[in-house]
Amino acid sequence: xxxxxxxxxxxxxxxxxxxxxxxxxxxxxxxxNQSLCHETIRWKSDVPLTEGQLRSxxxxxxxxxxxxxxxxxxxxxxxxxxxxxxxxxxxxxxxxLDGASVSVPNGYLTECYDDWGTRYQVPIYCxxxxxxMVKEASGRDSPAECSEPVDGGAALALRLRLSxxxxxxxxPVCARHTIAHCKAKLHAQENISPWRQRWFYGGKLLGDKLLxxxxxxxxxxxxxxxVADPEPRPPS
Length: 236
Known about the structure:
Region (Disordered): 1-32
Helix content: 25-40%
Domain Ubiquitin-like: 156-232
Oligomer: single chain
Strand order of the largest sheet: 8-7-11-9-10
CATH class of the domain at 49-133: Mainly Alpha
InterPro entries: DC-UbP/UBTD2_N (IPR032752), DC-UbP/UBTD2_N_sf (IPR038169), Ubiquitin-like_dom (IPR000626), Ubiquitin-like_domsf (IPR029071), UBTD1/2 (IPR039869)
CATH architecture of the domain at 49-133: Up-down Bundle
CATH topology of the domain at 49-133: Bacteriocin As-48, Chain A
CATH superfamily of the domain at 49-133: Ub domain-containing protein, DC-UbP/UBTD2, N-terminal domain
Protein name: Ubiquitin domain-containing protein 1
Pfam family, one: UBD
Mean pLDDT: 78
């Protein structure tokens, strides 16, 4: 998918080979588990991606991975942990992993194991954005996602709590808007690109294709919005 630019810490720090696998040298005996590393992997895509293409690629992986190997609840936990880690909320990411009994022998989500010993591999593009990501020509992620539905349904306001801090926001939407459309509205209101947003309600990740009415959000309850960094900085 792409090559790693590198994460420089020390001789005992992480290493990524040409296959995109992040590993950490052993200092003595083999450890079965390590705490999640508090750092972002920087990498460069072989083919530059737009924000929308990266999001679509991620959604495709997360939607199809459970069909091939592993347990869906573990994949859901890994997805939530990846979102939290990308937003640099490593404490939340670690709590999610611990709650699902997921071990990370190398300290990275690229290789994980559940309590049954099943191996899970998360591609690097699901963990951070490439440093050579390009902007959408239109400045929007997708006309289909941002266009107004023919029948928006009943009007309502969603209360959002952003991981960036500040007071809760009330976002006017309609019951038959998709979460992707709501992200676009939040983008217009707060200038937060949709690909940076991950919405959670009741501990569950809300997918882009989900309708607001399908999420069954109780009036007055808060939707958590994890906001990722705008873009990774190139190494110095």
